[in-house]
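Sequence design from tokenized structure. All designs in this work follow the same two-part layout: the structure record, then the generated sequence. An example of the structure record is given first.
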């Protein structure tokens, strides 16, 4: 069961609201709304041993002024055994809608679903972490499971081994009359060079140089080996590298994602950020400009461009970007701290208030900026 729209809780149950619902009092929710629990009960009665519930509906109640009682967000789900459920926000909490075609929650869920060899429960748990991280803990999805065994959304057959050392198997050279071609089992003496007529016009990039790998990186490498033209896989591996502070490798992967999908605003923003950390400031500025051009109300990209301007010594531009980011997300600690540093650089002691507020939200934000090269 998947639903994306508006949901309301009433009487400790959650109801999905159709677009033509005529709701003027709280009592009419049960008349025009559709109970999530009732649909789940029908699925269970039909004999389903595994039931998946994905609800992207923890938005602010559009009828809240008409209701006397508190009706924020959704109610905890009362589900039969064998149910795995995820809500876009915790019970009694609401989410912030994004500017894109999908919500932040759905965007993260789709990314996790493309990760190979993950069970449905692992996908939901990773989505919860991804949304929490992307929203600076402003939105934390709720996951509930009563599964008794692992369930996979796709096939679980063992994946073929990755193609070393590049992401694609080597393209064989055209056959020649002599000497005879070597056996298919014999390793070539050196990597073959594709002839011009056989070479792809846009060859897929190879993965980055070997690094210390954990299971996540290893699985992503294998997935890229099987599908080297999937930009989401490069984006996800770039995220993992960035989390491990391997910013150069992250920059390379975000670049691969952008080459395959030039309108990927998130990849452009992330490459802007990693380039800014690495000191590639003019290139970072170009990435952020393009990301914001494609998505003007993108708080994270405004925050990244603010960092870039800050490191360039362009303090007025940095403050303007941080102001714009904070209008969209007033509790963004990085924008508050960056604005405070920019103000202090200009001789404005009022920046100390921004820094204190940022530290009250994230006590480690000063050390984070020091690691970015902003003492």
């Amino acid at each position: 069961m998947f639903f994306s729209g508006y949901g309301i809780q009433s009487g400790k149950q959650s109801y999905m609201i159709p677009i033509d619902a005529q709701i003027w009092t709280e009592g009419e929710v049960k008349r025009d709304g559709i109970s999530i629990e009732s649909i789940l009960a029908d699925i269970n009665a039909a004999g389903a041993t595994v039931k998946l519930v994905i609800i992207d509906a923890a938005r602010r109640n559009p009828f809240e002024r008409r209701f006397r009682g508190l009706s924020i967000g959704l109610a905890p789900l009362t589900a039969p055994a064998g149910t795995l459920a995820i809500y876009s926000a915790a019970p009694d909490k609401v989410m912030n809608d994004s500017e894109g075609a999908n919500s932040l929650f759905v965007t993260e869920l789709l990314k996790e679903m493309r990760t190979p060899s993950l069970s449905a429960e692992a996908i939901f748990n990773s989505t919860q972490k991804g949304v929490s991280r992307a929203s600076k803990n402003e939105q934390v999805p709720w996951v509930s499971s009563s599964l008794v065994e692992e369930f996979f959304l796709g096939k679980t057959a063992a994946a073929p081994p990755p193609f070393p050392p590049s992401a694609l198997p080597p393209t064989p050279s055209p056959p020649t009359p002599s000497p005879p071609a070597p056996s298919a089992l014999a390793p070539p003496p050196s990597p073959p060079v594709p002839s011009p007529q056989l070479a792809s016009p846009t060859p897929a990039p190879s993965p980055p140089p070997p690094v210390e790998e954990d299971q996540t990186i290893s699985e992503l490498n294998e997935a890229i080996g099987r599908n080297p033209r999937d930009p989401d896989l490069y984006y996800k591996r770039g995220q993992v590298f960035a989390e491990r502070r391997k910013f150069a490798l992250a920059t390379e992967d975000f670049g691969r994602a952008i080459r395959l999908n030039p309108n990927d605003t998130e990849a452009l923003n992330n490459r802007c950020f990693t380039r800014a950390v690495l000191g590639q400031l003019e290139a970072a500025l170009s990435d952020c400009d393009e990301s914001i051009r494609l998505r003007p109300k993108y708080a994270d990209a405004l925050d990244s461009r603010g960092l870039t301007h800050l490191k360039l010594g362009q303090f007025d531009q940095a403050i303007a970007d941080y102001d714009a980011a904070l209008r969209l997300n007033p509790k963004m600690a990085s924008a508050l701290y960056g604005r405070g540093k920019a103000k202090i650089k200009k001789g404005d002691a009022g920046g100390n208030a921004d820094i204190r507020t940022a530290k009250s939200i994230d006590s480690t934000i000063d050390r984070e900026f020091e690691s970015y090269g902003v003492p």
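The longest strand covers residues 51-56. We note this feature because it recurs in several other targets discussed in the main text.
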